[in-house]
Each structure stands twice: as C-alpha cells, then as structure tokens.
From TrEMBL:
It is found in: Mitochondrion. InterPro entries: Kinase-like_dom_sf, Mito_inheritance_9. This is Altered inheritance of mitochondria protein 9, mitochondrial. GO terms for cellular component: mitochondrion. Keywords: Mitochondrion, Transit peptide. Its main location: mitochondrion. Belongs to the AIM9 family. It comes from Rhynchosporium secalis (Barley scald fungus). PANTHER family: ALTERED INHERITANCE OF MITOCHONDRIA PROTEIN 9, MITOCHONDRIAL.
Amino acid sequence: MPPKLWTYSLRRWLLANRPIAYQHTPPSTVATFTTLTERQNANHVMPILSAERSNGTSEDISEEELYRYTRNRWMHMSERYLKFDLQELLKAAVTSVSSEGARYCTRVLKCREGLNNKAYLLTMDNGSEVFAKLPSPIAGPAYYTTASEVATREFLRGVLNIPTPRIIAWSADRNNNV
C-alpha cells in the first residue's frame, strides 16, 4: 500500500505531449466546488469521491468503493481489496504540492483500474492535480513493485527525456501512514 504520487494534467499533457507540472483552475470555475463548504468540519475537508466509468463519465461513490476492485468483478476480488487511510493519503498529496498553494483536496477520482494498481486523481483547491497509485496486494512484493516503477519512470524522464509525469513523492515502506 505505499503511495506513488505524481503531478498530473492528462488533458494538457496529451494535447502538448510534454510534461506539465500543475494545472491551475481559473477563478471563474472555482464556484463548481461550492458544495464543499457543506462537507467541511474543523479538521479537514471531505472531498467529493467519484469513479471513472468505462464510457468515460464519472459518478459519485462511497468511500468503501475506493478500496474495492471494481473493473472485472470476477478476478480475485478479495485479494485485490486494498484498505488504506484516505485522510493520510490526502495529507501526503496536499503536502507534496503545498508549495504551489494547495491547502486541501476537493475531489478524489478513482481511475479505471489495471490489474496491479489502484489509481486516483486528486484535485486540490488551487486546481493542482496529483496522481496517486497504490499497488494491490496481489501485485507482488510492495517494495520491489513500487521502487521498480519509480526507477523506470525516473529513467524515462531523466535519461531518455521521454515526457512522463514528474514523481513528487513516493514510499515503498509498508509501515507508512497511508
């Protein structure tokens, strides 16, 4: 369950075919997050939770659905279940982009799942986006799968100059807070 966090702006990256560190929401569109004021309490903001569907749309989901494997319901569902601390993941993501002015996460989008990872697109209050990947328990030894993916992405970006999202934080320690 170690997280891998990348800054991510898929739409811009695909259009420009170059790495983009952050995407900022224009002030005129901030009003779309007004429902979050109802979700605030003294300690944190509960983000909107949604999942990407096969037709490209998204729908609101419960927190429990973030942990379940939902793509192919017949494939080792119990072994792919990954319970993690959502608030700790959000805290790690906000900390990683706080220098850009992010204070809290407004939306968690569960991306379509692959066979070995759970992927989430976390949108911050300032429009920054962080892509978080957590390996499923079935993926293999968490340390090696995480470290291998980080090393591969760094090699692609740094040595081969292939535009890939920049890794801003990662941990292969099974005892981390997430």
